[in-house]
Amino acid sequence: MFSLSLVHWLLLGNCSMLLMVGIFLWMLRQQNIRDGQGQQQQIAELRQTQSSINQSSIGLGRRIKQLESRIQSAEHHAVVPDMEEAKFAQASRLVGMGASASDLVDSCGVARGEAELLVSMRRRAS
Q1: Which pLDDT score, from 0 to 100, does residue 125 have?
Q2: What pLDDT digit, counting tens, does each position of 25-44 carry?
Q3: Could you give the CA distance from residue 119 to residue 7 in angstroms, rounded to a whole number?
Q4: In a domain? residue 1
Q5: What is the pTM of this model?
């Protein structure tokens, strides 16, 4: 029969321990590789998300500029009707004081047809 001495048993024990440590280290390495691949995938997804957010921000910036331009344009056009209203209010006061259509055209800058309309409306109201 085959009998092993203490030295042989120690050698077998050490070899089996080294084999187990080697297997454990190999398993850790495989896990590390899988984790690295998962992290690379997450990084790629985050980069794509960041790119989408950047594109959205650029688009929103352009849209805001367009809206600001439209607001400024609307504010500018809003001033014109106020001036028009002031012009017709002045013309109406002058008609009340007896001004003619020619007077309104000369002093207020209203169109001839508008001036005649204001004068005729005032005559009918009287």
Answers
A1: 73
A2: 999 999 999 999 999 999 99
A3: 130
A4: no
A5: 0.43
101 neighbors 116 (Cβ within 8 angstroms): yes
Helix/strand/coil for 103: helix
Instruction: State the Cα–Cα distance between residues 43 and 100, nearest whole angstrom.
Output: 80
Backbone angles phi and psi of 61, in degrees to 5: -60, -45
CA distance 117 to 122: 9
Q: Cβ distance 94 to 103 under 8 Å?
A: yes
Q: Does the residue 27 lie in any domain?
A: yes
Three-state DSSP state, 25:
helix
Q: Round to whole Å and give the CA distance between 76 and 97.
A: 32
Q: Which residues of the chain have pLDDT under 70?
A: 1, 78-82, 126
Containing structural domain, residue 40: 6-125
Look at the chain and report how many structural domains it folds into.
1
Which is nearest to 91 in space by CA: 100, 82, 80, 78?
100
